[in-house]
Each structure stands twice: as structure tokens, then as C-alpha cells.
């Protein structure tokens, strides 16, 4: 142990002239306060974060950033950020904010501004969800904040929440952060990533408090059939579970896939529908989401008061961006052009489907909605495939960043997620690079990141990075 690292204790020793064994193994004086100790203490994170993960913005993303700073051009397909691929927020939403700039200077009600909440109520009514009033709607700084708050208001130590696997990993993280236990129900690739309600029922215990449904799904793009949603609704009603239906991709469906709002099927228990401006309205930087409660709200007075208390503690969500909600939800829905044939998202999804079709390595249950594809690698062709290693190799050697499947709480290691936000020609190039790498794997079954045409400093960093992953 060098003395520089233990400087504070050495100083004390010099002053007191008496010796004792300190944490660094040196003989020093009895403990006395020294101002320098402040700078040398170790600051440990909360134990509560030990099992909390969000790999989508984790080490791979940091490494990609590092490579970009070194001058490499990285195609980042790991995050569903429409703006990063040139998709703009509808102009009318920007105008609505400009018009209301002065009205956005103060705090607003903890649940959000009335016009925004009322616009959500009207959307719910149009979809056939009855009984929702502005009182049942809470606006948050993105759906992300509301995922945390709605769970925090509900869970006690050890309460269980049924969460899909694969999931959008914030759901698992937020259950864990709020002292609950995420119990994953499988949405298997061979079933088009649609869950089996009978299997979900088997996972219920006396501690189960809620079920999370993400439809259309991130990361798989699955759009659940009505019969499956009906069965999940009945299960929740029978067991008295709160239903959290994350419908942030509600208007993003392709080739006739039919989206059914779960709240239209849930009557005899509490249903929380979550959605927002981030995806359908391409305004993820505005940080606006909402949760609308329906079903047995009469039995949820205390819960909704607890949620309101949590909302009060953070005062309110971003007021300015809330002024865009009414404009967004009413009138022309430009997202429809993006997902219709010849629309940008439709065509880029088609490019992914075509690339998978051509590949001898890849498999894919065609995504019916959202803006992702959860691509599989055929284990019969590449039995040693490892999603994290692949994602790292693809980044280091081909300069493409994808999210390995393990980021989404799955037990298998042969999937990765890409977004179909880029245009079709970019995706075409990306999948050629993926194919190149997989072909290299096939000819040299256990490749390492250190192989390939990258510069030595990139290789060195890759090796260090890999150690971190293992
Ligand atoms: N829910 C799902 C399924 C998502 O995919 C995302 C973001 O990617 C969120 C919630 C968070 O959205 P927001 O930007 O509203 O916080």
C-alpha cells in the first residue's frame, strides 16, 4: 500500500508520534480528525442498487462514446431515440409550447395541467374506455418517472410483480428499486414473443400484487392478440392484481396488426395505462408521459392518494412540455404515415425482415409493432454464440452498436435488439456488417474482440472492456 493513498493517516502519525495499525496496514497515530480525510473517503453506492441494471446505456454505450471521441463513426442502434435518426416532433407541438411559454413559468398541479389530462381522458373515451376523468390521470416526466412512482406507491417489501421476459428493463429495475421482486413470465421466440396466460397464472403466488404488460412490446415488437389480453385481464381480475399496461407504442403497428388497449378489457380490477409523447410523437426529449387509471378505481382511493403524495413530493412535471399534449393527441396523427406502407418506419422494418430472410444465421419473429426487432442467432449454425461478446465485437470491429438480448432479462444468450428508426439503406449496411461478423465467427468458431481490422488502441480497450463484462 503506498503512502500517498493513506496520506491522511500518515499526517496524523506525524503529529501524534504514537503508533497504531490503521486500515492501510501502516503504523500510525490514534484516530484524529483531519480535513484531508474528506477527500480520501470511499463513497459506496446504496446496497439497494446492487441488482439494478440498465445495460442499454451501460458499458457498451460508454465504450461506443469513447470510440466516437477517438473519431470513429458508430451506428448506434441501441436506443429508441427518434430524433437521433432525423425524425422530428410534429411542428404543431412546438408551436403549442411557444404559444404557452409564459404560462409555463410556475409550478403546476402535481398531477399535471388540466388541458393535458383532459386530452388523455378524451383519447381514452374514444378508445371505448369509460369512467376515466381528469382526476384519474397523472402526468409525469416521461413514462419512466411514472413507472417508478406507480410501483413505489404500491409495493411493500417482497411483493411480487409479474414482468414479461424479455422486458423493457426499467420495469424490472423499478420493481427491484422499490423493494419488490420481479417474477418474469416468458414470452418465447417460438411463440412470436406472445405470453401464454396459463403459464403466467402458474407464476402467481400470495405475494403477487401486479402484472406488467408491454404492448406493442419493446424489445420484441410483439402485438398481443385480443384473446391473450382477455385471458390476462381475467387472470388479473381473479387474483385482484393491479394491471400496468405500458402502451407507449400504441399507434405504432405494421401490416394490419391490431392494437387492443388493455383497459377496454379490464373492468373488475385496477388498470393503469401508461403512454406518452416520446415515441408516437417523436418527442422523447420533452419528457412527458401519463398514466390513466380505469376499472375499479373506487377500490383504489388510498393507492391513488399515495401516488398523488409522491407526485407532490416532486412538485410537478415539466410544465412547458405538457402544453404540447393536447395538440399532440387531437387531430392528425402523423405517425400513421410513418408506419403505413412506404412510410419510413414501415420500410426500415421491411429492410430488417429482408436482411434476416437472406441470412443463414439470423431468425426473427416479425415485429408487428413498436420500433425494434429482437433478432435471434440460430444456435444450430453458431452454437458458441454469446450475445454480449457479439455486441462488443460488432462495436469494436464493425462500428455498430446493438443491445445484447441479456439486457432485457432473458435467460438465453442468442438474441440482440436493433431499432428500425434508421432509414432502410443504413439498415441494409448494418446487416451486411452483422453478416460479415457472423461469417467470421462461423469460419473461426471462437473469435475474440482482439481479431479484425481495428487499430491497436481499440483492441487494447476492447480487452479491458471485456474483462469488465465477465
Ligand atoms: N416504456 C417502454 C416500453 C419504453 O420502451 C420506454 C422507452 O424506451 C419507456 C417506457 C420510457 O419512456 P419515456 O421516454 O416516456 O420515459
Key features of this structure:
single chain, 470 residues, alpha/beta, 4-stranded antiparallel beta sheet, disordered N terminus, binds pyridoxal-5'-phosphate
Q: Which secondary structure elements does this structure contain, and how are they paired or packed?
A:
Blueprint: H1 7-16, E1 20-21, E2 27-28, H2 37-40, H3 59-69, E3 75-76, H4 91-99, H5 114-126, E4 137-140, H6 142-152, E5 160-165, H7 170-177, E6 181-186, H8 197-202, E7 208-214, H9 226-239, E8 242-246, E9 270-276, E10 289-295, H10 301-313, H11 319-322, H12 325-329, H13 335-339, H14 344-358, E11 362-363, E12 372-377, H15 387-398, E13 400-401, E14 403-404, E15 415-419, H16 424-443, H17 456-469
Parallel strand pairs: 3-13, 5-6, 5-7, 7-8, 8-9
Antiparallel strand pairs: 1-2, 4-10, 9-10, 11-12, 12-15, 14-15
Bound molecules: pyridoxal-5'-phosphate (PLP).
The site of pyridoxal-5'-phosphate has 13 residues, from α6.
Shape: globular
Distance between the termini: 27 Å
* Helical run tally: 17
Could you give a short account of the major beta sheet?
A: 7 strands, mixed
Read across the widest sheet, the strand sequence of neighbours is 4-10-9-8-7-5-6
Class based on secondary structure composition and strand pairing: alpha/beta
The rounded Rg comes to 25 Å
What small molecules does the structure contain?
Answer: pyridoxal-5'-phosphate
Please state roughly what percent of the residues sit in beta strands, choosing from under 5%, 5-15%, 15-25%, 25-35%, 35-45% or over 45%: 5-15%
- Residue ranges: pLDDT <50 for 5 or more in a row? 1-28, 449-470
Helix content: 25-40%
The whole-number mean of residue pLDDT values reads: 89
> Count the strands?
15
